[in-house]
């Protein structure tokens, strides 16, 4: 009988890649990480990454069924899914009990009813950090966002800043990550534009200046690959020197919106018109679009868009973790191809035969 243990001589545990379990294996206690928001876009990559490294993973989300797809990412019993809202302090305390590490990935892009930025990004984040502090959790990661700023015109960005401060107050050793727009197969950014290219004859972006001038190419972004983001988080859970740090996570290049639209056009093989519109139109459109069940645009998002999303040079980033940022030209084509005309995909398949 093999024992899949990670106990080291000092009585602590070490982490190493998971071996394939064999019949009769006994899984010894691993380090336990609780991931709030583990079923989301970034969370699913982190769950898989940490499970592969040998962590026991407790995924804390509201909708357990929607998170069930994560179970096969680990050995039997390695991934547990627990129903909890970050707004429920008692539930949060139960979810972090016994954990060696906690990661809070919960965030929202628009407010709805009681799910306000204050409730989720500040009060919820406070609940999680306080519970982790009370439970003596050794490693703590809080997910913020690039552009978190108490003076931002955007309520989202102000709440991300307030959340960081609340987490810091409860748990000074917390490690905080501020990613730029994150790209990957399930992202909400490139997929949205890919869908627009599929459905509409033109794809539009918004700009503060005349779109027909060289400076009118829209706000700038520095998209970062989801795999690089989770690699940094994973390393911060075991490495040294990350306590109390704030990291900005951004990709290797800055793009303006017109360039991003060209990439979308090229990878969807759609050749749509690319139209730059003044932000005034975005503001008017957002007044109506904000009432959609999952809004395409809200007035607060327009304020964020105006700012762009580029790393400052004031904070360390992926280089600290020895990560060379992945370029989006390598990854984005792999999932934007689903928006290509059917004929295109058929032809590609035939060519591949
Ligand atoms: N994606 C990006 O481009 C990007 C960029 C910058 C920063 N960020 C930040 O990174 C974090 C993760 O982003 P993401 O894109 O992965 O988000 P996401 O896909 O929207 O996932 C959110 C996750 O949080 C859970 N959740 C929502 N409300 C909850 C609550 N009240 N209690 C417990 N769990 C709750 C959701 O599951 P249930 O609905 O089942 O609860 C889901 O697992 C967020 O803080 C976000 O602000 C993301």
Major β-sheet strand ordering: 5-4-3-6-7-8-13
Rounded to an integer, what's the Rg over CA atoms? 21 Å
- Shape descriptor reads globular
Cofactors and ligands: NADP nicotinamide-adenine-dinucleotide phosphate
Strand content: 15-25%
Order of helices and strands: EEEHEHEHEHEHEEHEEEHEEHEHHHH
Average per-residue pLDDT, rounded, comes to: 91
> Uncertain segments of ≥5 residues (pLDDT<50)?
1-19, 23-28
Helix content: 25-40%
Q: How would you classify the quaternary structure?
A: single chain
Outline the structure in words.
38% of the residues lie in helices and 16% in strands. It is an alpha/beta fold. The strands form 5 sheets. A 7-stranded parallel sheet has the order 5-4-3-6-7-8-13, sandwiched between helices. Strand 4, helix 2 (64-67) and strand 5 form a beta-alpha-beta unit. The radius of gyration is 21 Å and the shape is globular. It binds NADP nicotinamide-adenine-dinucleotide phosphate (NAP). NADP nicotinamide-adenine-dinucleotide phosphate binds next to helix 1 and helix 4.
Summary tags:
single chain, 353 residues, alpha/beta, seven-stranded parallel sheet, 12 helices, globular
Question: Secondary-structure blueprint of this entry?
Answer:
Elements: E1 3-4, E2 26-27, E3 32-36, H1 41-53, E4 56-61, H2 64-67, E5 79-83, H3 89-96, E6 101-104, H4 117-134, E7 139-143, H5 155-170, E8 175-179, E9 182-183, H6 190-199, E10 202-207, E11 220-221, E12 224-225, H7 226-238, E13 246-249, E14 255-256, H8 257-268, E15 273-278, H9 279-289, H10 299-307, H11 328-336, H12 342-352
Parallel strand pairs: 1-2, 3-4, 3-6, 4-5, 6-7, 7-8, 8-13, 9-12, 10-15
Antiparallel strand pairs: 11-14
Helix pairs in contact: 1-7, 3-4, 4-5, 6-8, 8-11, 9-10
Residues 36-43, 61-63, 66, 85-87, 105-107, 120, 124, 143, 145, 179, 181-182 line the site of NADP nicotinamide-adenine-dinucleotide phosphate.
């Amino acid at each position: 009988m093999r024992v899949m243990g990670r106990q080291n001589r000092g009585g602590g545990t070490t982490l190493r890649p998971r071996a394939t379990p064999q019949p009769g294996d006994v899984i010894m206690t691993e380090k336990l990480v609780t991931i709030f928001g583990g079923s989301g876009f970034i969370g699913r990559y982190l769950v898989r990454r940490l499970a592969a490294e040998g962590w026991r993973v407790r995924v804390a989300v509201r909708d357990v069924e929607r998170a069930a797809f994560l179970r096969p990412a680990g050995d039997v019993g390695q991934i547990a899914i627990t129903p909890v809202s970050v707004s429920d302090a008692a539930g949060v305390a139960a979810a972090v009990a016994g954990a060696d590490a906690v990661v809070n990935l919960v965030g929202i892009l628009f407010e709805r009813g009681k799910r306000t930025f204050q409730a989720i990004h500040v009060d919820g984040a406070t609940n999680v950090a306080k519970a982790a502090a009370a439970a003596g959790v050794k490693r703590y990661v809080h997910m913020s966002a690039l552009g978190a700023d108490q003076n931002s015109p955007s309520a989202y960005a102000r709440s991300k800043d307030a959340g960081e401060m609340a987490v810091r107050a409860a748990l000074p050793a917390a490690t905080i990550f501020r990613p730029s727009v994150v790209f990957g197969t399930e992202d909400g950014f490139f997929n949205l534009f890919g869908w627009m290219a599929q459905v509409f004859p033109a794809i539009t972006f918004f700009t503060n200046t005349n779109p027909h001038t060289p400076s009118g190419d829209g706000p700038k972004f520095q998209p970062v690959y989801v795999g690089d983001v989770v690699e940094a988080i994973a390393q911060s859970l075991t490495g040294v020197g990350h306590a109390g740090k704030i990291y900005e996570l951004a990709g290797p290049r800055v793009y303006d919106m017109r360039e991003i639209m060209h990439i979308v056009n090229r990878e969807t093989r759609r050749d749509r018109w690319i139209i730059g519109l003044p932000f005034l139109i975005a503001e008017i459109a957002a007044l109506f679009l904000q009432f959609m069940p999952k809004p395409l645009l809200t007035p607060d998002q327009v304020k964020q868009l105006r700012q762009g999303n580029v790393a400052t040079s004031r904070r360390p980033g992926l280089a600290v973790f020895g990560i060379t940022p992945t370029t989006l030209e390598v990854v984005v084509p792999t999932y934007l191809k689903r928006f290509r005309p059917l004929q295109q995909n058929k032809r590609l398949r035939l060519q591949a035969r």
